[in-house]
Amino acid sequence: MNLIEELRWRGMLQDTMPGTEEQLQKEMTTAYIGFDPTASSLHIGNLATIMLLVHLQRAGHKPVALVGGATGMIGDPSGKSAERNLLSEEVLRDNQNGIKKQLEKFLHFGDAPNAAEVVNNYDWFKEFSFLDFLRNVGKHLTVNYMMKKDSVKKRITAQEGEDGAEGLSFTEFSYQLLQGYDYMHLYKHKNVRLQMGGSDQWGNITSGTELIRRMEGGKAYALTTPLVTKADGSKFGKSESGNVWLDPTMTSPYKFYQFWLNVADDEAENLIKRFTLLTQEEIAALVEEHAQAPHLRVLQKALAKEVTTTVHSAEDYEQAVEASQILFGKGDLETLRGLPESTLLAVFEGVPQIEISKENLANGAQAVDFLSEITQNQIFESKGEAKKMIQNGGVSINRQKVGKPDENITSDLLQGKYLVVQKGKKNYYLVKAV
């Protein structure tokens, strides 16, 4: 597999330094990407660069993931208008451990020659004094050279206060020198010859290749991938509630699946190329099938299946599919019982939620009372209205049709506390008994 050709047809190739393709074809090459540990989980915006490492390893090369325990204490100014909050070493170390576990789902670790490896730049920066760094590293890059980088120029030329922009601190200005030294250290100690990243990292990466040339007289290479954006040019990777995380405790598998299922038609082809390992022929067939019947969302379903299965599991994917059918009137009581509480709450996020006392159900409350008075008349405004819809077969509780107004409500609560009420075809209520 030719890595450059693979990335090119997938739309994953932005810039390469001259000689990069020749280096990759010549021998097994060790390449690295840096990951920011300022959150305890990676998010789907990180998937674009994770997939670079996946394809690199599939092509027979060795991937190294650098977790920036040291640089994460400072913050990269690229693409940002303000300086980030600084985190403690303890928090950063916990975050790094979580990130490594997530990377293990994508990359093969072990004893093979091209087995993946995780490194932490705190390990070589922690004993590096400020004076030693200035004397041994800082002297090799001029301020003029560093000022030409886009990430620096944009922050310096921006007016403070304009669109929330702040001036560039010396801390952030030094970031490219620190990242450049990362590359130099890995070049020297891990035989790394290529750094990859998002297109906004080109300046930082090339600072590293320049530092290697000046300090070691060596030749190193650079490769970037386009930033993933929506069709309107806005940033990809956020839902209405914020980042879509890879950690299931931060974004449930159901919400994760729904995010991919709901991408726009004009984005789906690009995303399925970038975020799955489906072949060119398989994707071409899906694109053609989708074009014949866009309403069936063939591309989105294939994309959601592949990514959810990889990040979570096949079981989580199947459960997400079942859960997604519930609001369309599909699925029975057993389906509801099988949903974890986080998924149940995610499915019914946005529907009216009503809290009642468990005591109201303990003695076998009648359906007509439960649907009106006990639930504070939030489902039906009166017993008469509730009675009429029950008699017309329009009410279900936990997917069980309520047959008679005086029928006793079950105390068999989902997760020991929930009842799902459906009024008509589309109106849902989640009742929590506490």
- Share of helix, binned: 40-55%
CATH class of the largest domain: Alpha Beta
Q: Give a quick account of the main beta sheet: strands, pairing sense, barrel closure.
A: 6 strands, mixed
SS elements, strand count: 13
Keyword list:
434 residues, alpha/beta, Rossmann fold, Tyrosyl-Transfer RNA Synthetase, 3 domains, five-stranded mixed beta sheet, 21 helices, 13% strand, Rossmann-like_a/b/a_fold, ligase, protein biosynthesis, ATP binding, aminoacyl-trna synthetase
Give a verbal description of the structure.
A motif ('HIGH' region) lies at residues 37-46. By secondary structure, the chain is α/β, with parallel strands linked by helices. It folds into three domains: 3-225, Rossmann fold (3-Layer(aba) Sandwich), CATH 3.40.50.620; 252-329, Tyrosyl-Transfer RNA Synthetase, CATH 1.10.240.10; 347-433, Roll (Structural Genomics Hypothetical 15.5 Kd Protein In mrcA-pckA Intergenic Region, Chain A). The chain has helices at residues 3-9, 20-26, 47-58, 89-103, 122-125, 130-136, 143-147, 150-157, 170-173, 175-189, 202-216, 253-261, 265-275, 280-292, 298-311, 314-326, 333-337, 341-347, 359-362, 367-374, 383-391; strands spanning 15-16, 30-35, 62-67, 117-120, 192-198, 221-225, 238-239, 242-243, 353-356, 395-397, 400-401, 418-423, 427-433. The strands form three sheets. The chain has a six-stranded mixed β-sheet with strand order 1-6-5-2-3-4, sandwiched between helices. A five-stranded mixed β-sheet has the order 9-13-12-10-11, with no helix packed on it. Strands 7-8 form a two-stranded antiparallel ribbon. Strand 2 (30-35), helix 3 and strand 3 form a beta-alpha-beta unit. It is elongated and about 85 Å long.
